[in-house]
Here is the input.
Amino acid sequence: MRTQIAIIGAGPSGLLLGQLLHGQGIDTVILENRSADYVLGRIRAGVIEQGMVGLLEEAGVAARLHGEGLVHGGTEITFDDTRHRIDFKKLTGKTVTVYGQTEITRDLMEARAASGAPTIYEAQDVTPLDFDGEKPRVRYRKDGKDHELACDFIAGCDGFHGVSRQSVPAGSIELFERVYPFGWLGILSDTPPVSDELIYINHERGFALCSMRSHTRSRYYLQCSLAEHVEDWSDSRFWDELKLRLDKEGRERLVTGASIEKSIAPLRSFVAEPMRFGRLFLAGDAAHIVPPTGAKGLNLAASDVHYLSRALVEFYREKSSAGIDHYSGRALARIWKAERFSWWMTTMLHRFPESSGFDRRLQHAELDYLVSSSAAAVAMAENYVGLPY
Ligand code: FAD
Ligand code: PHB
Here is the structure.
């Protein structure tokens, strides 16, 4: 089998890249090691920047997002039991859209199926080969048989645990990492959200976030220790702890109910440099991770795909390798800004086990500055709604 671009991973990065390239007449084959249902079962991001909305429009998959997504013009930040609003629309002229990653993935999967472009699910032992030469290949097993896919380029869109980054010789890649001493315990429930906008809460018991997927479906997170087990968190224990971290109005308005998903995610900052190795490109979580506090993970995956899709179109249309030569540098410049913002939001809002009284006073001063200085609020809002591509 042969294709122009072999894409490893059918998460949002791989599917969006496939759809954008398909629109430009470039052939792709996607190899995914899980089943389609498994991929759709992962509950992850929920906040979409305008830049990503534009890419989904370009890919022809934004109809449901425009119908069902919730446009938010601001967010709330609570500390000292008091809520403060950061007005994105007023400060930057931009908004964000709340629409789940699961729904984006579903929309992209359906569009790909309709286009007839192949996705091979449950492909085992996917291995990128010979990407340092002119004739890269990807080997995989399916239904007990070995296969080989010849291609012009390989796009490694296979997430943090994927094979693409791990296939690069250790001496050719540099890794930067910070692991945070806590995780997020998240639940999804069919209950109305506690507020019309997201609420980010700094509390002495730990961070909490009130988010949503629709007017009838809520997503809540609690900072938890990495030693916690999800089985030890009954729904009632979760709601009781959330109430302790909410402000008075939130406590009164909170509607509780049975959870439909509950999981713990560790928090990490991670960047791999560069993002191109001959004819192999990394995109999305395969190359970088941000802690979710800035809502940047999925949006960064989309901006990588934006740069990579344009670079590949330029390569085939104009026979120019300028775009692919600049891909890594362009993507990394944006990634490090999102890394900084996500680290800053995480540091400002969480309780660190080792923090001293001095650290906590500084954190309080930072929050106070954010809600009392318009310059600080603009800086936060600009980053949250997304820097230009
Ligand atoms: P992924 O979504 O990880 O997709 C990679 C795909 O590659 C997967 O389908 C995987 O099965 C497949 N794959 C892996 N290995 C192989 C292999 N060897 N061969 C073939 N296929 C393979 N971001 C936010 O903004 N807000 C959040 O609240 C948030 N919560 C998150 C919670 C968790 C638990 C995680 C892991 C991430 C979260 N993120 C969040 C980040 C966001 O979901 C990611 O940035 C986004 O999923 C990146 O998309 P991706 O396509 O690059 O990677
Ligand atoms: C979510 O809704 O899952 C969500 C929203 C904002 C974040 C992180 C996660 O910062």
